[in-house]
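User: What would this chain look like folded?
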Amino acid sequence: MSPLSVDEWMNFDNLDDTNRSWNMMMHKVASFHSKHNFSDPVNNGHDMGYRIALTVEELGEFAAAITKGKPDAEAAEELADLLILILGHSLALEVDLYNEFNKKIEKVMQRPARHTKLGIRITEYRDE
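Assistant: Here's the prediction, encoded as structure tokens.
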């Protein structure tokens, strides 16, 4: 099954606000992309170089909220910004992120835990 486009997410049914679902989030992000016509090359909204720069900026804001001890609500807002961007990346790249998430989580669930200087790490990486 191929990933849905912005237009297909715009027409997606079964979007009850009480349904806290992947479909609801993707529909809302697609609505945002559609509202501002991100896919138009003039707007650069689907340009991954631009999107990565925005992601780095938002990650910095999230990190600052954590490291500067700002209220949890501020960190939560920055985390939501990151999620919106990541979901938008999947639209821009036409990736079925739900499917990719499920494939990846299956892999990482099989990985062993390692303890490092900074804490627990779940990775395939091995010391050389």
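The longest helix spans residues 72-93. If you want, I can go into more detail on any region.
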